[in-house]
């Protein structure tokens, strides 16, 4: 499985960006129990969980700092997961990564549970 994350860029505080995570190498059934997550890593900090979605049911899970501002969705037909980011803040500046958890543990913020990772896309929010 290959993941490609894109859509990052430079935006002013209060602005919006939509990140995309395109999966290739395998077509996921709409009934797959995989979980796709978004993580981010700011300079000098550890990679942290942002949001996750189940491929089949569309259940979602967000870290507290992005609730109400970020929305994760998926398009089964396009094998793509999106992260809509609104009301961006300078503290959202980071490299954003998408990843897939093939296990059956359901939604999880534990990065060690994720098996495949994309290359990352950089988001910079200016104040």
Structural account:
This protein is mostly beta strands. It contains no helices and eleven strands. Strands 2, 4, 5, 6, 9, 10 and 11 form a seven-stranded mixed β-sheet that branches. Strands 1-3-8-7 form a four-stranded antiparallel β-sheet, with no helix packed on it. The radius of gyration is 14 Å and the shape is globular. 32% of the residues are buried.
Which regions are unreliable across 5 or more consecutive residues at pLDDT < 50? none
Q: Which class best fits the helix and strand makeup?
A: mainly beta
**Major beta-sheet overview:** 7 strands, mixed
Beta content: over 45%
Mean pLDDT: 92
The strand count comes to 11
- The ordered string of helix (H) and strand (E) elements is EEEEEEEEEEE
Q: Assign an overall shape.
A: globular
Counted by DSSP, the helix tally is: 0
- In helices, the fraction of residues equals under 10%
N- to C-terminal separation?
A: 37 Å
Radius of gyration: 14 Å
């Amino acid at each position: 499985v290959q993941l490609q994350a894109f859509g990052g860029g430079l935006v002013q505080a209060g602005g919006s960006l939509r990140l995309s995570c395109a999966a290739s190498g395998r077509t996921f059934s709409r009934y797959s129990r995989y979980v796709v997550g978004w993580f981010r890593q700011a300079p000098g900090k550890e990679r942290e969980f942002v949001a996750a979605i189940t491929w089949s049911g569309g259940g979602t899970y967000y870290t507290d700092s992005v609730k109400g501002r970020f929305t994760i969705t998926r398009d089964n037909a396009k094998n793509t997961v999106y992260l809509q980011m609104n009301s961006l803040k300078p503290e959202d500046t980071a490299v954003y990564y998408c990843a897939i958890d093939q296990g059956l543990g359901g939604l999880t913020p534990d990065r060690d549970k994720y098996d495949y990772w994309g290359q990352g896309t950089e988001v910079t929010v200016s104040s």
